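Dear support,

We are seeing what looks like truncated structure output for some complexes. This example has two components. We would appreciate it if you could run it in full and send us the complete token output so we can diff it against ours.
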Amino acid sequence: KNQVEQSPQSLIILEGKNCTLQCNYTVSPFSNLRWYKQDTGRGPVSLTIMTFSENTKSNGRYTATLDADTKQSSLHITASQLSDSASYICVVSETSYGYKLSFGAGTTVTVRA
Amino acid sequence: DVKVTQSSRYLVKRTGEKVFLECVQDMDHENMFWYRQDPGLGLRLIYFSYDVKMKEKGDIPEGYSVSREKKERFSLILESASTNQTSMYLCASSLPPGREQYFGPGTRLTVT
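Here is the complete output from our reference environment:
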């Protein structure tokens, strides 16, 4: 059973608009949560990483939030660009050793001009 | 910048063939990983290695084996390819513990 659920599965937005992606997890014990961006035909690239004690982290136009009490995270994309079209993957680390990761299935974002 | 390279971007093999997928990283990372990625599913860990000649099974090791003879190189072997192994295969590397994993570009394998 996947312990990381992402929603929506896909979304289409107009260039310049904002959007928010959701991630709910049941992984325990929790070490950190990461958001990755995966362009079509490429490997995932890290956007943000948050530990248990952090509740927000930004990387340019990407802002991730974390509520460790409710086990929810979100990724907000501001002023979307065509290059934001990609799959966004939520990844939760079960231990501080980092090798055991639980991956969400991803949200596919399409930005249209 | 960390660089993880994979030997092929696209590969087509026949059922029953032995398949080698190679991964090389240039950052002296101890940990290396092999995942497969299928539509609608998250990445699933096949095997990982925490040192030369050391390996541990991931969540879906059946039908696969691995080899790590040198620190920078981690190979995934499909002993007898089957159609249900058609997938995107991603290699990653990291420093321990709890550090970010860096991914290669992936190999899209099709078994016919």
